[in-house]
Design a protein that fits this description.
binds zinc ion; binds (4S)-2,6-dioxohexahydropyrimidine-4-carboxylic acid; 29% helix; alpha/beta; five-stranded antiparallel sheet; TIM Barrel; 11 helices; eight-stranded parallel sheet; 20% strand; 356 residues
Length: 356
């Protein structure tokens, strides 16, 4: 049995308020615990989006009632809420800015809309950018101009990881995360699991899946990657297989088995896994230590990933049929057994707000 600290996932789409038929604070935190994740940071592209105090409280009240693991909630940068959200910084995980196409309406195209956020949001609080390719370059330039840290979400391209490496070498305060789907899947579906029944909608995700060369560049620059994050973005199978499929993959329950399989294959070290799933996210997002918290993993257990065994409400996984090695047996969260042998034991409401 391998004992690890509880994992932190800094990028999760909970869907509550507004779209609880996809997922809610109860199911998402069950999914987290089953995946060995004891803290999630929730994204603000809910319905309504988390744009002010009232909407922040909507999300936090639901979380307080339902969450079974610890959590934080991001604020969303809108076209005219820079002063409002900066006043709420100490209650939130940080500020999320969508500079590129996404699910929902939070995209800020005009750079004059970015400026008030960079000017007002406290430098000590995290800003996370959804930015791809050239908007990422622009976002890094903003970090340099306004001399404040930025965290780049879901890096997927070779040009992006190389740019971040160069920016770090110049001393610009930039950190980044990479998602398992961008490390294990390509746009040609190389590596995709059970291909039978795979509709085009199921591979839709933003940022899109990339080429083998991009995937190789991420693995080759593992030392530039600060965090692993799932970008857990549940949509139902019916939606994914529809005419107009929304982008996004669930990921909380496949994160650790995929990474442990990479460790088993000699592509990743356990130290890297702990650094990028616990130590760095804790530092970057200023998260408290969780006392008496750990996960127990059976490193030798081999099994097949199946959606039917998952706790997420969305009912599918892009890794269906994958053979993995490494199973979460037990999760202990603040002294209580929260998950044991396939069962979630933490009660609704046991989770704590990391900013409370
Ligand atoms: O694939 C994605 N899904 N990318 C995003 O930017 C948003 C997310 C979602 O909320 O579904
Ligand atoms: Zn996301």
């Amino acid at each position: 049995m391998l004992k690890l600290p509880g994992l932190i996932d800094p990028h999760v789409h909970v869907r509550e308020p507004g779209q609880t038929y996809k997922e809610d604070w109860d199911t998402v935190t069950q999914s987290a615990l089953a995946g060995g994740v004891t803290t999630i940071l929730a994204m603000p592209n809910t319905q309504p989006p988390i744009f002010d105090e009232a909407t922040l409280n909507l999300a936090l009240d639901a979380a307080k009632q339902k969450a079974r693991c610890d959590y934080g909630q991001f604020l969303g940068a809108g076209p005219d809420n820079a002063v409002k959200v900066s006043a709420l910084a100490n209650k939130a995980a940080g500020l999320k800015m969508y500079l590129d196409s996404t699910f929902g309406e939070l995209r800020l195209d005009d750079m004059t809309l970015w400026m008030p956020h960079f000017i007002n949001f406290p430098k000590s609080a995290p800003i996370v950018l959804h930015s791809e390719s050239r908007t990422m370059a622009a976002g890094i330039l903003f970090a340099a101009i306004y001399d404040r840290p930025v965290h780049i979400a879901h890096v997927s391209l070779k040009e992006e990881i190389l740019l971040i490496k160069a920016a770090k070498e110049k001393g610009i305060k930039v950190t980044c995360e990479v998602c398992p789907h961008h490390l294990f899947l390509t746009k040609d579906l190389t590596g995709f699991g059970n291909l039978s029944g795979l509709t085009p909608g199921r591979k839709e995700v933003r940022p899109r899946l990339a080429t083998q060369e991009d995937v190789d560049a991420l693995w080759q620059n593992m030392d530039v990657i600060n965090c692993f994050a799932t970008d857990h973005a549940p949509h139902t199978l019916k939606e994914k297989d529809s005419e107009n499929p929304p982008p996004g993959f669930p990921g909380l329950e496949t994160l650790l088995p995929l990474l442990l399989t990479a460790v088993d294959d000699g592509r990743l070290t356990i130290d890297d896994l702990i650094q990028k799933s616990v130590i760095n996210p804790r530092k970057i997002f200023h998260l408290p230590e969780q006392s008496e918290t750990w996960i127990e993993v059976d490193e030798d257990s081999k099994y097949e990933i199946k959606a039917e065994n998952q706790f997420t409400r969305c009912g599918w996984t892009p890794f269906e049929g994958w053979q993995v090695k490494g199973r979460v047996r037990r999760v202990v969260l603040r002294g209580q057994v929260a998950f044991d042998d396939g069962k979630v034991l933490a009660e609704k409401g046991y989770g704590r707000n990391i900013r409370a």
